[in-house]
Amino acid sequence: MFKPITFILLTLAIISCDNGEKDKRRMARANSFKDKNIVVTDLAKKGTFCREFESNGRLEAVNKAVLKYELDENILAVNIKDGQKVVKGQILSVLDSIEQFHSHQKISRELNKVRLSLEDELINMGYQLSDSANVPKEIMQVALIRSGYKDALGQNKLSAIELDKTKVKAPFSGIVANVNAKPFNNASQYDEFCTLIDNTSFGVSFPILESEAFKLHKGMQVAIVPFAFDTDTIIGRLSAINPLVEDNGMVTAKAIIKNLTGRLAEGMNVKVIVREAIENQLVIPKSAVTLRQEKNVVFVYKNDTAYWKYVKVREENSHFCTIRGKKIKPGDEVIVDGNFNLSHLAPVVKMN
């Protein structure tokens, strides 16, 4: 039987051998990288390429209204505050309506009197107002004019409108901004009561070079990236292109987007990316293209060797480009990292 000390020495010897083998493997791997460039590759692919046109713009609500008081009366109530959401028809502010109320009541009474005159006119002609549907049109028109009912009815409608003006109502649903008015002041003190913004959808106007404008068309996909939180990308559609070229050689285009995230706001600065899908293109990452002797070059990886290929770049976007020619084919491994100092037939080691 082994003594304990003998067993311990044997165990240490085995461990030492194992560590020696690991060191040899590490050295062999290090030697395999010696004098070789470490690279990362990606595949050249045949497919759809997105042409991109970039610009900057500001958001503006599709529906936006500056609300004003239409009567010079005292303000009784302001029912809203900045940032509050309101619905269409909601009463936002109330003015003193005593004068308009009594005027409407008086005109309504006059209308009732004139209605009796209209009924008398019809009776004299052999008809009843209760059976007005059977009264010939010509006779009804004569009775309306003689009795003064048409004029009285018009006055009653106008007085109802004046009474309604004492209440400021939301013309559409949205969010309130710039509330200026305060109760117990005369409405004439304020040029504007508030601004109502429909924040469900926004438009964005942005400039684009005239040389690129002819490539755009209504309905193209537009990506909007707010500078405030560039992790959000909202997709919209190009809605209009101004046919007029400005003095600086720019053309104004417009797009519409939905506020799907709920974080968009009036006046927000955004990056605009117009995208056009081009089918049947040979696409590679832009990082695969380098300059050699003022020409575009792509290195193709094959059997631990980098092969220098001249290419012609056609279209580019933020991450990819299209190339033409037969020197690179779909499925080729192009070097996208570690290609800066490469030369033709340079030995390389692929890491991905």
Explain how this protein is built.
There is one protein chain. 25% of the residues lie in helices and 40% in strands. By secondary structure, the protein is of the alpha+beta class. The strands form three sheets. Strands 2-8-11-10-9-12 form a six-stranded antiparallel barrel. A five-stranded mixed beta barrel has the order 1-18-14-15-19. Helix 2 crosses helix 3 and helix 2 (98-124) runs antiparallel to helix 4 (149-164). Residues 26-30 have low confidence and may be disordered.
| N- and C-termini, Cα separation | 52 Å
Shape: elongated
The structural class is alpha+beta
Spatial strand arrangement across the major sheet:
2-8-11-10-9-12
Taken in chain order, the helices and strands follow as HEEEEEHHHEEEHEEEEEEEEEEE
Query: What integer is the average pLDDT?
Result: 87
Strand count, sense and barrel status of the largest sheet are:
6 strands, antiparallel, barrel
What is the CA-atom radius of gyration, in angstroms?
Answer: 39 Å
Helix-residue proportion: 25-40%
Low-confidence stretches: 26-30
Please state the oligomeric state of the protein chains shown.
Answer: single chain
Percent strand? 35-45%
Would you count the extended β strands for me? Answer: 19
Put simply, the count of helices is: 5
